[in-house]
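ingest -> fold -> write
write: protein_1
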Amino acid sequence: MKDALFGGINAAALTAMTADYTPDLDRYAAHCNWLLANGCNGLGILGTTGEANSFGFEERKQILEGIIARGVPATKLMPGTGCASLADTVELTKHAKAQGCRGVLVLPPFYYKAPSDDGLFAYFSEVVNRVGGGIAIYLYHFPQQSAVPFSLDLIGRLLKAFPGQIKGVKDSSGDYANMKAMIDNFAKDGFEVYSGSDEFVQKILAEGGAGCITAAGNVNARFGAIVYKHRTGPEADAAQAVLNATRKAATASPLIPGLREIIARSTGDSAWRNIRPPHLPLSAEAGQKAWDNMQAAGALPLPGLSMKAAAE
């Protein structure tokens, strides 16, 4: 897909925290800038991997403002702004627009289960109308987590009602047939489809999708960049094989604590293990397993990061 706002490889970035669980803006901004220098076209921040729903409303604003103030380009950021509350979703989206972000990733209202398409249409209509123009809305399709899927019929209605404002989707369902159906039905209208699963990067690009927004991008984005550049051929195929292996390695452990462990060991910075309950850091044994799996996948060492903590 040409001219996609976030076309390419986007990491769903981990959020750095201090020992008392407050956002660590210096450490986080440094990680974001490292990702952008090592294969990422953009960053999905404050999503599932970024533990958005473990942070309060004002904290989420503080995080976005803080990393922009520390040199992370707002135009490269797709913050998660979807909340159970309509008012909070609107306010966080307006805030992202005011900071200069080009798009936001919006979960459906996830507390009440099995809402109708009419109810979801009404919700997103209110979001778009209250926010106004000037920022693109990306739908976050992750039914395993939210329990509220986006149907093709609903997406079609939203695109018809709000052309150019409902801009795309991140599909974290793992169901490639669903991603392909979104591409087939809506890509012709400029609707950007991003995979949340690394194993689909090469395939989705070939079939008209825009790229990916993935948790494993915290460690494998440089291989995604090769796939995005070359698309086909031996170099792209080899890089896609590493994406597949790193995705498998990342999901063999609890995803967020496992990725934090990889970054902690790669940087020699144990603060990356800080994680808000109910998540917990990995045990020493589980941490070693996560490290060994990622090393076997071919993603390590991470360029530009110290390896001194490998034996911790």
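write: protein_2
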Amino acid sequence: MKQFRQYFTFASNNTADTLGINVLNLGHNIHPVNKPYPDIQHPDSYYFEWEKGRSLKEYQIIYISKGEGYFESNGLPPQLIESGTIILLYPGIWHRFRPKEETGWEEYWVGFSGAYAKYLLEQECFNPQNPIIKVGFNTEFLETFSRFIALAEVQEASYLKLSSFLLIQLLGIVYTSVLLSNQKKSRKEEIIDQIRNEIHRKWNNHIDFEELAKRNNLSYVWFRKTFKEVLGTSPNQYHLLLKLRKAEQIIQDSNLTLSEVAYQCGFESEFYFSRIFKKKMNYNPSEIRKKNMSHPEF
């Protein structure tokens, strides 16, 4: 896949300010392996050198959906960042982060300010000195970000106000994730979370779930039943939906043919990929490309 960066800045927004929240910028990037970070396309006002780090004048949510890396901040020792991690940045707090050279990473981010944002992020469950939140693969989070980017591309008359509503939705997901992470998980949930993370790491590979259960010292019957109990779907269906969501994102963010996307996402053929995509997502994958062509980037 090509290196990809999509970055939007938002104009001053009095309507959104009345909601107590103001979206400042938004972006998505797939940073490839063995490349310096940040890359040369990084916005000048946010570029930083690793040795110096940086601090911001705004809040930012950064979601690492794929890959691994490192994060450091005032009062916080170096942290390993895995896929499925949110980094919550506060104004005036020094920090630095980068992906591992051997993995690269995929990142989404949004910068914002406002009284409501300040109120929410000063709640007891949040800690500016410990801004790492592990949420795993969160389809709702990714879908909201995708809608956010699509809205910024089109810039319809109401996009500034709608962008604030989408940001509030993202913050709600983050807030809920923090509250849930503070609750003690059952042993069942811990086991399924561990296996779900492995599925996410190997999302475009064939996964033998019976073998996966065996490697984790579980019977397949217990594993399948418990997986569905915890996540509401079977392991196979979860893995399939994961691949389809990733395929949708690749189609949006690249010029790969549908055949290349199908291969990259582990499907046996373009025909099977298109058929199962239509069945599960209720629209054809080719419609994504047509929509993008009708709304070119600005």
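write: annotation protein_2
Strands lie at 4-9, 22-31, 59-67, 69-73, 76-81, 85-89, 95-99, 105-113, 132-134.
The chain has a mean pLDDT of 83.
pipeline exit 0
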